[in-house]
Design goal:
alpha+beta, 23 strands, globular, 16% strand, 40% helix, five-stranded antiparallel sheet
Length: 764
């Protein structure tokens, strides 16, 4: 009987012709670089103007003007600050919305997890800065978001008392038992011990104390890694509108995308040792140490270094040397069925060594399949992914302004130190003369021998007028003027005397910044979605993380996700940012205006505004002022006011799912309770109730909580009513007053005669 085969190992990478694929990737690279050569040169010139790097001019000598104008820098930094402040003004900046009601209770946990992964584990504030700069200056930001699990070997040294007893190994084993109870150690000499995860060695010091050296592999990162990519490090066909694969639902996608980075030789060796790179041979791996980076692949970065006055030093350490690695997302027929599939290739560009080949869905298991990119365009251009940048919009006016100012400066130089003519037969020496203030030069007939032409100053006034005109056009183009930079525009001081006037003027310039802000946040929602999809497949069990914001006393500030089922499900990602989020003063002003309009007698009597609404409004106003008023200056008016809003129908659905409702009545306490009463009455009349005994117990508990909330609200209304009656009867400060401080008369009411304005004795 033949032996039954019980094992079958799967080859990680695809079976392909390595040489053919390497040539294919290299051709993609060279074609894309050639197609964008002029674009890269133009971008480099704009970047130099943004950094205020001047070219140096000498057409009339060393004194030629070469002004470095900060207009592009000012407008760009202002727009970057606007985007950065909008993201950082609220946490989390992106919120999840479940596509089905059964996953609604997972939203808060997912929001907290993604916020922690991005801002804490990944130091996301720095990433937001980089994305804002690329978005404004390059016209597009690109984020490559893979799942990264990185381990490093670390050593730890612990000190213990001198050896106890006659046998050192027994003393060492007791130490290991106390320190690492769950590890099984083996030793060959009684001094060195090894387990599956640890390597421990014991030594004695001069004072006979025992030194224990522990070596272990530590996970330094395990999660989604958003990596902002520079403009020049992402290549694709020119006529691609996005980086996703083309198809009927995405007709303007990119057939291939190349992501470039520059790893060290040591990183390549580590990934090969861990079997992530499984196509490279040992001989090819050893040959990497003899390679050096081809500078032709980094020409743009090299030019930036030269403009900045820096040169990269070549390292003498072979393992520290860097190479050019390309990750190519491609469409390729891997099984000869005549249909292309989404695949990924990894290759070293210098020697065209293929490192790995994998299906896209195996590396990034998403449904539908999606390449791990998030992107956003500053000013979209039809059929082009990059669009237009702020620097590109400003470049024409910048060049016009620089030329005008340079001419004005050169005209001033010639006016103050003009050229001159002299008679050859005079005693003036025929050589270069430098004229300095206060110095005299002997001549027999200076009036006739030397002549300084008079250069008029008309060009100066022309230059100043042109500078003003260009500034006005630049302000209209960028929507960045004195008001946006925190200054009062000339001639507008009267309009800005009141908060309402300032709000009106600010609102006139909100349209374009609002569009830019929305595009930026749409790119972030793509990133959040990518991170969530990766979490659904790769998140380690029992992931523990710190929650966002303030926690109540005694509440655990940490949340734990037991397994991936806790975050499984389909979610949409939304944002609530707007131009008001970018300015604390504007946010404070808008909230103050809302409180003035909402918190008054009429909305409260009509039931439009209740105590919970006022509580949330005051809470948001305190946060806008830079404080956290919750449990510090204000308290919830009724139990549960600080919880998420929830309708009565949602509460009943949670009870049917076996969960205790945990939210604040969205329709108000009384209407919410009335709906619960109606459901309870209907349930009592049914022959076969919907609720099981356990669900009935949950419903009764929640019903009693809402009944107590109704009683608390009624008691509060009675107190407010009594306070109003007491103020009216006592004639104290509780009654209505006019703007000038005098009491406001009610119907058929006379002023007291002792008041100065009543015309009685007090007026005499």
């Amino acid at each position: 009987m033949p032996e039954v085969k019980r094992t079958r190992k799967r080859i990680d990478s695809l079976k392909i012709d390595r040489v053919e694929i390497a040539k294919r990737i290299h051709k993609f690279y060279t074609d894309d670089m050639s197609a964008k050569s002029k674009d890269r040169d133009a971008r480099l010139q704009r970047y130099a103007k943004y950094r205020q790097w001047t070219e140096g001019r000498d057409w009339i000598g060393d004194e030629t003007s070469d002004v470095a104008l900060p207009d592009m820098t000012t407008a760009s930094l202002k727009m970057q600050d606007t985007l950065h402040n909008a993201v950082m003004s609220q946490r989390p900046p992106i919120s999840s919305k479940a596509t089905s009601g059964e996953n609604k209770d997972k939203q808060e946990k997912i929001d907290n997890l993604l916020d922690y992964q991005f801002f804490v584990e990944h130091m996301g504030e720095k990433t937001i800065e980089e994305l804002a700069e690329s978005f404004v200056n390059d016209g597009v930001f690109t984020v490559f978001c893979p799942w990264v699990k990185e381990k490093k070997k670390v050593s730890e040294v612990l000190l213990f008392k001198e050896i106890q007893g006659d046998f050192p190994d027994q003393y060492f084993k007791s130490i290991l038992q106390d320190e690492y109870r769950d590890e099984a150690f083996e030793s060959s000499n009684g001094w060195d011990y090894n387990s599956d995860t640890l390597s421990v060695s014991f030594y004695t010091r001069d004072d006979l104390r025992v030194e224990m050296v522990v070596e272990k592999n530590v996970t330094v990162f395990d999660g989604p890694k958003p990596i902002p990519k520079a403009y020049e490090d992402v290549l694709h066909p020119v006529r691609a509108a996005n980086l996703q694969a083309p198809g009927p639902s995405n007709p303007k996608g990119a057939t291939h995308v190349i992501v470039i980075d520059y790893p060290t030789v040591d990183e390549i060796k580590r990934l090969a040792k861990n079997k992530f790179y499984d196509l490279i041979t040992d001989e090819e791996l050893e040959s990497l140490t003899t390679l050096s980076m081809d500078e032709a692949y980094t020409e743009e970065k090299k030019q930036k270094d030269e403009f900045q006055g820096k040169t990269e030093e070549t390292t003498t350490q072979k393992s520290h040397g860097t190479l050019t690695r390309v990750i190519c997302f491609d469409l390729y027929d891997i099984d000869d069925d005549g249909l292309d599939e989404d695949v990924i290739w990894w290759m070293i560009l210098e020697n065209k060594t293929l490192l790995k080949a994998k299906r896209l869905s195996e590396m990034y298991p998403m449904n539908p399949p999606r390449r791990p990119f998030a992107e956003a365009t500053f000013l979209p251009v039809e059929g082009r992914r990059e669009g237009m940048s702020l620097l590109e919009l400003m470049e024409g006016l910048h060049d016009w302004n620089k030329q005008t100012i340079d001419q004005m400066m050169d005209g001033g130089t010639l006016s103050n130190l003009p050229f001159f003519f002299y008679r050859p037969s005079s005693n003036v020496k025929q050589e270069m003369m430098r004229l300095y203030a206060g110095e005299g030069y002997p001549m027999s007939d200076p009036k006739n021998d030397v002549h300084f032409p008079v250069i008029p100053n008309q060009s100066q006034s022309f230059g100043l007028n042109m500078d003003t005109l260009i500034g006005q056009k630049m302000e209209k183009l960028t929507v960045v003027g004195d008001l946006q930079l925190g200054r009062v525009p000339s001639g507008k001081s009267s309009a800005l005397r009141t908060a309402k006037g300032a709000q009106t003027i600010i609102s006139q310039g909100e349209a374009r910044p609002e569009r830019m802000l929305r595009r930026f946040f749409m790119g972030l929602t793509e990133l959040w979605r990518q991170m969530h999809e990766l979490n659904k497949h790769f998140l380690p069990e029992k992931k523990k993380f710190r929650m966002i914001g303030y926690q109540k006393p005694g509440e655990d500030p940490y949340q734990e996700i037991q397994d991936r089922q806790d975050i499984n499900g389909d979610f949409q990602y939304e944002f609530s940012a707007n131009v008001l989020n970018t300015s604390k003063a504007a946010l404070q002003e808008s909230l103050g205006a809302m409180m003035g309009a909402y918190i008054n007698e009429l909305p409260m009597q009509m039931g439009i505004v209740n105590a919970e609404n006022i509580y949330r409004m005051l809470k948001d106003y305190g946060k806008a002022l830079g404080q956290d008023p919750e449990n510090k200056y204000i308290t919830p008016p009724v139990p549960g006011s600080d919880k998420p809003l929830m309708t009565a129908e949602e509460a009943i659905s949670m009870v049917m799912d076996g969960e205790m409702p945990n939210g604040s009545p969205q329709e108000g306490v009384m209407p919410h309770f009335q709906k619960l009463q109606e459901f309870a009455q209907t349930e009592s009349q049914r022959e076969e109730p919907f609720l099981s005994p356990g669900q009935q117990s949950l419903f009764e508990t929640y019903y009693q909580e809402m009944a107590q909330a109704v009683q608390a609200e009624m008691k509060q209304q009675q107190l407010l009513q009594a306070a109003g009656q007491f103020g009216g009867q006592s004639g104290g400060g509780g009654g209505p007053v006019e703007d000038n401080g005098n009491p406001r008369l009610q119907e058929n009411e006379l002023l007291a005669e002792d008041l100065p304005t009543s015309g009685g004795g007090g007026a005499q």
